Amino acid sequence: MLFNYQAVDQTGAPKTGSIDAVNVDIAITSLQRRGLVITSINEADKKTGLLSMNITWLERVSNKDVVILSRQLATLFEAQVSALRVFRLLAGESDNKVLGSKLTQIADDLQAGTAISASLAKHPKVFSDFYVSMVKAGEESGKLNETFNYLADYLDRTYELVGKAKGALIYPAFVIMTFITVMILMFTMVIPKISTILVDSGQEIPVYTKIVLGISNFFVDYGFVLLGLVIIGGFIIFKYIQTASGKEVFDRVKLSIPYISNLFRKLYWSRLADNMNTMLVAGIPMIRALDLTSSVINNSIYHKILADSVEAVKGGKAVSEALSNNGEIPGIMIQMMKVGEESGELGNILKTLAKFYAREVTTAVDALVDLIEPLMIVCLGGGVAVLLASVLIPIYNVASAQ
């Protein structure tokens, strides 16, 4: 890889030129060994301009991609393939261009002598702190192939659990969007034409029909204004949720909605137990395991609970005792963890808890879908029926009177 650089030497004289190196870090090190102070350095063949700008929000590596990558890494490391060759091979075979680019950069770092965990840590949007810490523990213990197996299994379970929860919401979301679309079309295209017939008839219009006609007129006259307000409101809410206070409010709402809150809690309990079990098996210390779990559990309320527990454990308390100081962690979970600590089988206890709550999440999701599907269909059919009845009944009365 060729880099262009600008620098000054020990006398202060400016120097420019190019250097061939594996990556920018190696290029800088080589130039510094020559006694040069770098002022700027960039790839010689790097394009500039509008067409070459990176659209960062389109650069995405999904959880599914990381799951597949972890399984491939585990298989290749078990086959005793060297780390450099593993990442070179996977970089060339990756269907995701962004992931392929990241793997190429990791391979370049490995060739320059960087550890695998340090190379992965340079790409936090793809590899989380949890992932990097697991790999680092595997490097230190000499069991890197087992670590990637743990990661592959863990990510597989997490992907399946979260994917099932998200997939269950697709059908209800589709039904709701269909309902909203049908109602908007009725109010803006069908009702206005029918209202002309009612007004021209000169008959007394029932109150409920007047309400429907009023709503229809509002959508026709101010529909675009309402759409603009909805878009602006949605954007403001989205931006607010990105802030720390907004995320906390949103997380509290998720834990307050009847029935839905139980689903989220079981999901968090399963993730908590599974994370901690995976890290303890990999040899990561308890305090570090709690700290990493707090960062990947994806809920600010549980993040604070685990962060407080870290401080309590540092102060000499047992994990079960530290987690019992709040009302979010269920008593049965606390008691089982306490038994695990006393018997030295905390890892197995956490594994059992993770499986149990994963099944609970699956059961809750299935029950939620079974409840929502008929409810949405009834609401859709009922809403359209009421709307049509409120307009067609007056028309029928007009026809009968003639």
Please provide a brief summary of the model.
This protein has 402 residues and is mainly alpha-helical. It has helices at residues 24-33, 63-78, 83-93, 97-111, 116-121, 129-141, 144-167, 170-201, 207-242, 244-254, 260-281, 286-296, 300-314, 319-323, 331-343, 346-401; strands spanning 2-8, 14-20, 37-43.
Provide structural commentary:
The protein has 402 residues and is mostly helical. The protein has three domains: 2-43; 61-167, Up-down Bundle (Receptor-associated Protein), CATH 1.20.81; 169-402, Up-down Bundle (Receptor-associated Protein). The protein is 74% helix and 5% strand. It has helices spanning 24-33, 63-78, 83-93, 97-111, 116-121, 129-141, 144-167, 170-201, 207-242, 244-254, 260-281, 286-296, 300-314, 319-323, 331-343, 346-401; strands spanning 2-8, 14-20, 37-43. The protein has a three-stranded antiparallel beta sheet, covered by helices on one side. Strand 1 and strand 2 (14-20) form a beta hairpin. Helix 11 packs antiparallel against helix 12. The longest helix is centred in the last third of the chain and has 56 residues, at 346-401. The chain is extended and about 100 Å long. The N and C termini lie far apart (88 Å). The relative contact order is 0.08.
